[in-house]
């Protein structure tokens, strides 16, 4: 019944192309009106309650609920201004004076000065200049005059004295700087901004700081703040568009020109592609689905699938048109032949993509919906607009005597013999092909366990020289922010503990046993030995019950006496009568105690250690593993547990849940697609087992993609895990076309190998054109000097290439074995057309 309706729809399109175009133009205008309503906000955050069952999330929430939060944080935030001179000395008189004059310019800048904290701007130049002035209260003008009147040799001496006698100076220099060395290639200034002012004032001041530092870049000044990154992102996006879009379009047009060998077909096909993408965005706007900041993913995927649809429509039309035949009849037969397969591809692809609706990330859910809407749009466009345009244009050209008859891609004298060899291979060695495919696919699947896992792939800012030397707009202009940021992370520690990442460890259970605080301290010492903590002068890298007790004891003699009596070994850590120690701690200063020791209903439930880390998200996985090892030291079997529960640990746990969720989704989608193909093939071709055979290569494609990731050292990140789930939607396409064409040919009386020959050389030719076009276009993304995008391009190229190879190399052998050993036949479903269906 559904097939009959589809046939009638195709009959109407080919019989009334002008009405079809008019209706689709009006409908397109309505759909595209949704584009201005498109929500482009980022959807990167997860649902707030999506991970409440994750252990580390529970512990983090527990900390927020049961421990008093620090309220004495200073009302300031620091912006860093860096000075770098790899070939010089940033501690020279000239460089220090440049720094002071830069400070002067900051104070004179109204936008910055209105947001300055009373602590102002500080740097090693101030410490040296105050020594030169002989006055620690010298104003900035007095500092400049003093340094101007000091000889370079005396300045060097003052630098040596400052580094030796004032430990504050080291916070302005790289972490590994030797205090005895009066020269350096890097230093920084701290600009204190007042957090009590409005966010707009702070944002404007931050932007002005970036601008002022950029104007002094020749002197080595730079800032790495949000505005610097925004400028970098804009620059990067512009460069990517200038590099990728021309290269991708050029490649697509060249391949389309080779495949179609006809300008009209190229233009009509590209009109279909563009309309499909625009329809996707229009529908997203009407439905209120966020496009997000990664809308390039559905654009390129939908473009690739649209090009694939176009190849099948045009190729089948060319196959059907006889030498002395008109246009409409062969177009009707061709679209009817291919429509069933296109609908089935759309349905199975939608299953794969919509399975991501179960994912807790709105970003991934939106991507699944976006791509599904795009594929559905492509189906509608390529069975209505594209055939109608083709009929109208070809009919007009033929009235002027221009012959529009063209050969199908797979019928070329060079390409046909190559494709036909896979049928010969299936005839002579189908079992061998199958065994080899299983072994290769299994080997690829096993590589999953050896894939590296990363939160994201960070760019180091380096760009290959040849990419910079490409002519004209293709040349990549580098931007310094990424490399500057990496340099800062490599050589500097956070300016203070407050500016560092805070990672808490929650200790629960028996926290009053004599060894509880001793074990806690051993765990903290273990963290120190791993060089994870901020160790800048004057910073407090650890806040724990031990450090808090020592701080209170320094101001409370009564509590100090309690602490001393409880410390039997004199190491400063109480190791007996801990319940009494906690009681005295709360009595001495309940505000401080409540931040590190939980007391509830008169009982002591847990302890909290907070660590200020010299680390960032780029190495979060390694940091969490090290902290977890140290937390194990704080435990005592089943009596006491210690859990790392900060942003690093929570994000790693959540990432693991997301990746596992994507894998679960992928497995469910695979099962759903297999069942769908079995049911549909039973309905259309009378054989459920044929549908199962056609679905088998999807698993093989997945295994090959995983193996390709391993060989190319592509790590498993959130993006690559998402792409793995989308591979199903890509991998099923080609196999459906070949399997459906084979079944149709068999139903119409062809032998096994005649049917395979028609499927591989006819449909396979269209698949080859689609693979070359789409894979080539995606390959251009690999030109972008960012590892995340390179991984994206590589995975899609691998998926498309392997899907094509499997569909013409492995699937024919599977079909031969199915035809040979499965006691089933392909039957004709009721239809109004006697033409074979693709």
Structure characterization notes:
This protein has 838 residues and is an alpha+beta fold. It has four domains: 1-33 and 261-406, Multidrug efflux transporter AcrB transmembrane fold (Up-down Bundle); 76-229, no CATH class; 411-457 and 655-838, Multidrug efflux transporter AcrB transmembrane domain (Multidrug efflux transporter AcrB transmembrane fold, Up-down Bundle), CATH 1.20.1640; 494-613, no CATH class. It contains 29 helices and nine strands. It has helices at 2-15, 17-32, 55-66, 93-108, 110-113, 124-133, 140-148, 152-165, 199-214, 226-260, 263-287, 296-320, 328-354, 362-382, 385-399, 415-446, 465-468, 481-491, 516-529, 545-553, 557-565, 578-588, 590-593, 620-634, 647-685, 688-711, 718-747, 752-779, 787-821; strands spanning 76-84, 116-123, 186-194, 221-222, 501-509, 542-543, 597-600, 603-613, 640-644. The strands form two sheets. Strands 5, 6, 7, 8 and 9 form a five-stranded antiparallel sheet that branches. It has a four-stranded antiparallel sheet with strand order 2-3-1-4. Helix 11 crosses helix 14 (362-382) and helix 26 (688-711) runs antiparallel to helix 27. The model is unreliable at 829-838 (pLDDT under 50).
């Amino acid at each position: 019944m559904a097939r009959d309706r589809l046939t009638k729809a195709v009959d109407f399109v080919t019989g009334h192309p002008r009405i079809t175009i008019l209706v689709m133009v009006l409908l397109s205008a309505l759909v595209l009106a949704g584009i201005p309503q498109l929500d482009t906000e980022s959807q990167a955050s997860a649902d707030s309650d999506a991970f409440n069952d994750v252990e580390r999330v529970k512990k983090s929430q527990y900390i927020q609920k049961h421990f008093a939060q620090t309220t004495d944080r200073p009302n300031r935030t620091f912006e860093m201004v860096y000075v770098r001179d790899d070939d010089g000395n940033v501690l020279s008189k000239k460089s220090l004076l440049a720094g002071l004059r830069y400070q002067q310019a900051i104070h004179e800048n109204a936008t910055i000065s209105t947001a300055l904290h009373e602590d102002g701007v500080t740097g090693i130049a101030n410490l040296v200049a105050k020594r030169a002035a002989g006055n620690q209260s010298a104003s900035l003008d007095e500092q400049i005059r003093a340094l101007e009147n000091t000889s370079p040799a005396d300045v060097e001496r003052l630098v040596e004295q400052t580094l030796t006698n004032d430990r504050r100076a080291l916070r302005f220099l790289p972490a590994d700087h030797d205090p005895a060395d009066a020269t350096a290639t890097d230093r920084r200034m701290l600009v204190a901004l007042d957090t009590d002012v409005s966010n707009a004032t702070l944002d404007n001041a931050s932007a002005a700081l970036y601008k002022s530092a950029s104007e002094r870049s020749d002197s080595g000044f730079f800032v790495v703040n949000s505005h610097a990154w925004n400028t970098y992102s804009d620059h990067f996006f512009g460069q990517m568009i200038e590099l990728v879009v021309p290269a991708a379009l050029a490649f697509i047009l060249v391949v389309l020109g080779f495949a179609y060998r006809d300008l009209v077909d190229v233009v009509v096909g590209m009109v279909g592609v563009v309309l499909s993408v625009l329809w996707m965005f229009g529908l997203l706007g009407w439905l209120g689905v966020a496009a997000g900041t990664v809308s390039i993913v559905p654009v390129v995927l939908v473009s690739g699938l649209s090009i694939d649809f176009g190849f099948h429509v045009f190729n089948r039309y060319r196959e059907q048109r006889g030498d002395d035949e008109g246009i409409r009849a062969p177009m009707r037969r061709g679209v009817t032949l291919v429509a069933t397969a296109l609908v089935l591809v759309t349905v199975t692809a939608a299953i794969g993509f919509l399975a991501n609706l179960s994912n807790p990330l709105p970003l991934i859910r939106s991507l699944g919906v976006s791509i599904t809407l795009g594929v559905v749009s492509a189906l509608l466009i390529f069975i209505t607009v594209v055939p109608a345009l083709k009929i109208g244009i070809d009919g007009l050209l033929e009235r002027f005597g221009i012959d529009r008859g063209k050969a199908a891609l797979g019928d070329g004298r060079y390409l046909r013999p190559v494709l036909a060899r896979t049928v010969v291979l299936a005839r002579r060695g189908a079992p061998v092909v199958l065994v080899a495919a299983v072994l290769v696919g299994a080997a690829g699947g096993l590589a999953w366990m050896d894939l590296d896992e990363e939160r994201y792939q960070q760019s180091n800012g380096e760009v290959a020289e040849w990419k910079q030397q490409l002519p004209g707009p293709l040349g990549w202009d580098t931007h310094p922010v990424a490399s500057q940021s990496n340099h800062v992370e490599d050589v500097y520690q956070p300016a203070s503990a407050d500016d560092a990442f805070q990672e808490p460890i929650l200790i629960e259970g028996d926290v009053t046993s004599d060894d509880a605080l001793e074990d806690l301290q051993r765990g903290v010492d273990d963290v120190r030995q791993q060089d994870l903590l901020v160790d800048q002068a004057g910073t407090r890298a650890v806040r724990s019950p031990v450090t808090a007790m020592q701080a209170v004891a320094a101001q409370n003699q009564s509590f100090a006496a309690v602490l001393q009596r409880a410390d039997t070994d004199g190491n400063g850590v109480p190791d007996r009568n801990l319940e009494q120690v906690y009681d005295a701690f709360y009595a001495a200063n309940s505000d401080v105690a409540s931040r590190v020791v939980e007391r509830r209903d008169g009982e002591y439930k847990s302890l909290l250690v907070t660590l200020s880390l010299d680390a960032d998200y780029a190495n979060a996985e390694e940091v969490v593993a090290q902290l977890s090892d140290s937390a194990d030291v704080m435990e005592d079997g089943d009596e006491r547990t210690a859990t790392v529960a900060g942003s690093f640990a929570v994000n790693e746990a959540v990432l693991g849940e997301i990746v596992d969720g994507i894998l679960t989704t992928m497995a469910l989608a695979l099962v759903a697609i297999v069942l769908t193909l079995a049911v549909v093939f039973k309905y259309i071709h009378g054989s459920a087992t044929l549908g199962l055979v056609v679905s088998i290569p999807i698993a093989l494609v997945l295994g090959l993609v995983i193996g390709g990731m391993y060989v190319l050292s592509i790590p498993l990140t959130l993006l690559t895990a998402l792409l793995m789930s989308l591979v199903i939607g890509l991998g099923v396409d080609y196999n459906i076309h070949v399997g459906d064409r084979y079944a149709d040919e068999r139903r119409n009386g062809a032998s096994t190998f005649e049917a395979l020959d028609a499927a591989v050389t006819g449909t396979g030719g269209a698949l080859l054109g689609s693979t070359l076009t789409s894979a080539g276009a995606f390959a251009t993304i690999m030109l972008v000097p960012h590892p995340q995008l390179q991984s994206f391009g590589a995975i899609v190229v691998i998926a498309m290439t392997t899907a094509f190879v499997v569909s013409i190399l492995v699937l024919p052998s599977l079909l031969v074995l199915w035809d040979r050993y499965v006691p089933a036949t392909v039957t004709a479903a009721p239809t109004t057309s006697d033409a074979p269906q693709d």
